[in-house]
Amino acid sequence: MLTSYDYSMACILDRAGIDVILVGDSAANVIAGYETTVPMTLDKMIYHAQSVTRAVKRALVVVDMPFGTYQGNSKEALCSAIRIMKETEAGAVKIEGGKEIMESVDRILSAGIPVMGHLGLTPQSIHRYGTYAVRAREEAEAEKLVRDAHLLEEAGCFGLVLEKIPAQLAGRVAKELSIPVIGIGAGRYVDGQVLVAHDMLGITNDFSPRFLRRYANIGEVMANAFGEYVSDVKSGGFPNEDEQY
Ligand code: KIV
């Protein structure tokens, strides 16, 4: 599973054979430059998700429900999820949290909308915890996470993302649950992995957590291409005779 927020990236991901494309609310950071995912809105998620589903022929598209669209009121949560499904043609929604959002999860599931859970580091709660450090190192928090994972599975979630928690704990959850557990910074003992595509491609370079493997340095490739273009235009080398009408 990898993220995408736009048509062109989604075409490439789908062609590459990715199983699941996540239209993450990390678009708030990567695309819009916000420090947190809190400002992301439902309208903007729908815009990104529509761009992605127009591209995708085979991957499952999962759309993050943004902060404020499901936490307070399960009726509002259902309306938000229905808007996502109707307006984007995605296959599922993803929601951050456990016991405290179960009423919303139940209501969305009862409308026939597939839900993916998200536990561990839940970036939408940044103002509650004040840090993006590894979560659930303490026993009490780890036990709550395991209980929440079971609750989400029992409610009917089809999958679960575990973000930035100890590998052994993530492995325990993956072993105890029968639904797929997808990790990000959660080690190797889970069923699948997710990364933010812009991070693993090296398009973003101000974010370097230990769990992130960079598979390319596209940021440098782009900067070099932009620099070459600028110097070609300034020197009169672009366009040449063959590049004009
Ligand atoms: O928003 C996002 O990209 C995510 C992933 C980091 C799992 O939720």
Strand and helix layout:
Layout: E1 2-3, H1 7-16, E2 20-23, H2 27-30, H3 42-53, E3 60-64, H4 74-88, E4 92-96, H5 102-110, E5 115-120, H6 126-129, H7 139-155, E6 159-163, H8 167-176, E7 181-184, E8 192-193, H9 197-200, H10 218-235
Parallel strand pairs: 1-2, 2-3, 3-4, 4-5, 5-6, 6-7, 7-8
Helix pairs in contact: 1-3, 3-4, 4-5, 7-8
Describe what this molecule looks like in 3D.
With 245 residues, the chain is of the alpha/beta class. The protein has a single domain (2-214), classed as Phosphoenolpyruvate-binding domains (TIM Barrel), CATH 3.20.20. It is built from ten helices and eight strands. An eight-stranded parallel β-sheet has the order 1-2-3-4-5-6-7-8. The mean pLDDT is 98. The site of 3-methyl-2-oxobutanoic acid (KIV) has 11 residues, from strand 6.
